[in-house]
Amino acid sequence: MTENFVVGIVRGTHGVTGEFKVESTSGEYEHFARMEEVTLTDGSAKKLCKVEYTKEAADTLYMKLAGINTPEEAARFNRWQIVVPRKNARPLQKGEWYIEDLKGCSVWYAQSEQKETAGSTAPKTPSSEDVIGTVTDVTEGGSGYLVEISLSEGCTLIADDIKFTKSGKLRSVYVPFKEQFIGEVDVENKRMQLMHLWILE
Description:
Layout: E1 4-14, E2 19-24, E3 37-41, E4 46-57, E5 60-65, H1 71-75, E6 81-85, H2 99-102, E7 106-109, E8 131-141, E9 144-151, H3 160-163, E10 172-176, E11 182-186, E12 191-194
Parallel strand pairs: 7-12
Antiparallel strand pairs: 1-2, 1-6, 2-5, 3-4, 3-6, 4-5, 7-8, 8-9, 9-10, 11-12
């Protein structure tokens, strides 16, 4: 599983001492108080910094990092991500997962998980054609989170006009991350159940 997580995004500067305004990716801020150092990254460059202090405010957080002491220095990192080890990420509640752990999960059609033998509910080992696709991201939608699934070319359970765009490229679809659409999630084995094929149309 992924060992480093994006926990926040720099959203500007505050004051004259080089403080950042930080937006928490989880919407919660209490776990920032435990952080002793963080990594700032824009996707290519990285900067490891010790945390001097954090201060919570309404819907935001102010963070002061060692070595960044002016608004001009802080402004260089606007929109950079704040990355920490798993131990410093927000503790999970029941039924929650880190987005980074969900990425790369194979998506299986739920009904293919059981043997269709009378009286048997033993788990079936999925074959290659059972794979619907792969989770590439989880994003916020209007009424919750959406799982982005890149469809699998080899899946025989999905019609070609659903799998491919008019230009012949494999499609990605967005499925609401709700129990009526997503069943069992097993991040240890990188698997996720899809409950209905029609949601892909």
